[in-house]
C-alpha cells in the first residue's frame, strides 16, 4: 500500500498537547502522523509538501462531543447534506471530529433519526468527521429538561435504548441521562455493556444520587451548571459532585450566556486541566445571522447570537470551539497549553477514542493551526487540508 501524500509542517510552537515543542516539525504520511519532534530530530522526507507555520501554533484538531447543528443544518434531519454542512463549517473553526447530538423527541422520531444518522457515520465528509451519536435524553429529569419538550421526556426504558443502539448500527457513543431516575441503572447497564459513555445531565440529582451514578460509571457531565439542580452550601447537588469528583469529565459552555465568566474561572480552578471539556452545544443558527431556527423538532429564536425557545429558555448556543477556547483563556488566565487539553486530549479520553486528540506518531492526522489570536488558519482532517484561511479554501 502506498503511504499517500507526505506533508511536513514547520511549527513555531506545537502542542502535542502533553508536551510543547518550540519550534517543531511534524510529518504527515497519508492519513496519519509519521513523526513529531524538533527540526534537528525530524528529517523532511523527499517529495514532502511543505507547510510554513513557523509563526503559528500547531495543535491536534478539536473534538466536539456536543453539537446539534450549524450553518442552518440540524443533525436530526439525518441527511448526508445536513451532516456535511456541519462537517464543513466545523472545519473552519478547527474542529475535526464531532458527535452529532440529538434532543429528546417522541420515540418514533428518535428511532428514525438514529437510523438515518447511523447509516451516515461511515460516509466520507468534506470536513470534520462524525465519530458517533450523542443521544441527549430522553431519559432525563422533567424538572431540568431545559428546552427538551416535556412530552418527549421519558422514564428510563432499557429495551427502547437497546433498540435505538441497534437501529443506529451501534453508532451511539455518548448518552445523557439523569442519574436520579428510578430504573436508570438498567439503562446505564446497557450503556456500559455496549461501550457507550454514560453522561449525567438535565438532572435534578442530589449530591448522593449523583455520586452513586458516578460509582456506576457515569463519569461525564453535560453542560455543567446548565439544566442541573443548583449548587447550594447545604444542598450541593449534582453540581457539587461534578465539581468535586476527580473522575468526572465536565463539559462547560463558554459563550458568556450559559455560564458567567467568573463561574467559568471557578469551574476551571476546581476541575483542573485534565477534566475540562470545552464543547459548543451549538445549534443550526451557528455561523448564521440572527433569526428563527430549529433545534431538533423545536423552534428557536436567535437574538445577538443567543438562542431561546418560545418560553425564553436557553436553547443551545451559536458557539464555535475556536471562540470557546479564546473565551476560556481570557476568563481563566490559563495558558493555551493547558486550555487546549479541553478540546483535544480530554474529550479523546472522555470518549475513549483512540489515535485522536494527540499529535504523535500513529495518531490520525487531524490538525488545527492557529494564530496568536486563536484564529484558525488551517485545518487538516486525516491528512487532508480541509480549510485554509489564506487562500479561502474550504472543503
Ligand atoms: Zn442540553
Provide a brief overview of the structure.
The chain is an alpha/beta fold. It is 25% helix and 28% strand. Strands 1, 2, 3, 4, 5, 20, 21, 22 and 23 form a 9-stranded mixed beta sheet that branches.
Using brief descriptors, characterize the structure shown.
TIM Barrel, nine-stranded mixed sheet, alpha/beta, six-stranded parallel sheet, globular, 2 domains, binds zinc ion, 395 residues, Urease, subunit C, domain 1
Report on this structure:
This protein is of the alpha/beta class and 395 residues long. It folds into two domains: 6-60 and 357-394, Urease, subunit C, domain 1 (Roll), CATH 2.30.40.10; 62-350, Alpha-Beta Barrel (TIM Barrel). It has helices at residues 80-92, 107-120, 158-167, 184-193, 207-215, 237-244, 261-271, 321-332, 336-339, 345-350; strands at 6-15, 20-21, 24-29, 32-37, 49-60, 62-67, 69-70, 73-74, 95-102, 129-130, 133-136, 172-177, 197-200, 220-221, 249-252, 276-278, 291-295, 298-303, 306-308, 367-370, 376-381, 384-388, 393-394. The strands form five sheets. Strands 1, 2, 3, 4, 5, 20, 21, 22 and 23 form a nine-stranded mixed sheet that branches. Strands 6, 9, 10, 11, 12 and 13 form a six-stranded parallel sheet that branches. Strand 20 and strand 21 form a beta hairpin. It is globular. Zinc ion (ZN) binds at residues 136, 146, 202, 223, 227.
The small molecules bound here are: zinc ion
CATH topology (level 3) name of the largest domain: TIM Barrel
Q: How many structurally independent domains?
A: 2
Number of helices: 10
Q: How much is the average pLDDT? A: 96
Q: Class of the largest domain, according to the CATH hierarchy?
A: Alpha Beta
What is the CATH architecture descriptor of the largest domain? Alpha-Beta Barrel
Describe the sheet with the most strands: 9 strands, mixed
Number of strand segments: 23
Strand content: 25-35%
Radius of gyration: 20 Å
**Spans where pLDDT lies below 50 across 5 or more residues:** none
Q: Helical amount among residues, as a percent range?
A: 10-25%
Full CATH superfamily name of the largest domain: Metal-dependent hydrolases
- Note the overall shape: globular
Cα distance, first to last residue? Answer: 26 Å
Question: Structural class from helices and strands?
Answer: alpha/beta
